Amino acid sequence: TGDGMQRMAQCFADGLEARLAGSGTHIYTALISQRTSAADILKAYHLFLAACPFRKLSNFFSNKTIMNLAEKATRLHIVDFGIMYGFQWPCLIQRLSSRPVGPPKLRITGIDLPRPGFRPAERVEETGRRLANYAATFKVPFEFNAIAQKWDTIRIEDLKIDSDEVLVVNCLYRFRYLLDETVVVESPRNVVLNLIREMNPDVFIQGIVNGAHSAPFFITRFREALF
């Protein structure tokens, strides 16, 4: 019920209490297992875009880069690490539909972490269905490949890459969940970066937050998260 700073202080105080009590994992598991509808998430996303321009600009830069690259392409394949609800792509689909030469065949490989429970790929599959319906509305040939697993376990064969398509790898603000070499020597982050290098995309679009969220020291992580 307080202002922004007071609400944030409350959340971090709860987090510190969970950390001291060792109950953080149980609380997180209970929270993430609760299903929030895509419609509610979209309302929150619209509010976020209205309050803060950074994500909107990131989406614009990413989509503009892809449009320039695929100006005359007949086949476009986007591999999106951390697609979540896929809110970035309807604008691109609409713009592709208005190309003077007609839309390309669009294929999106949506990659996200598995959900807890019996349907680990539920969210990413629902994202694919929504994007397919949107593409059909604008008459853009569309195919969706859903992958819900830890990113460092993905093999290049899982991505079904064709040599005659324009290949884009996109990841906006999701690499921060990958542990780096300060935590484990064979770090998941390096494994994923090596996979992207092996894919040899026409462009790799990466959005990052400058924050040491994966540092091995708790105080450093806390300070960066608070910032």
From TrEMBL:
Residue numbers spanned by region VHIID: 45-110
Residue ranges that the Swiss-Prot or TrEMBL entry lists as coiled coil: none
UniProtKB keywords: Transcription, Transcription regulation
InterPro entries registered for this protein in UniProt: TF_GRAS
Positions of short motif VHIID: 76-80
Region described as Leucine repeat II (LRII): spans on this chain: 126-158
Pfam annotation, one family: GRAS
PROSITE patterns cross-referenced by the UniProt entry: GRAS
Family annotation (PANTHER family): OSJNBA0084A10.13 PROTEIN-RELATED
Family per record: Belongs to the GRAS family.
Protein name per the record: GRAS family protein
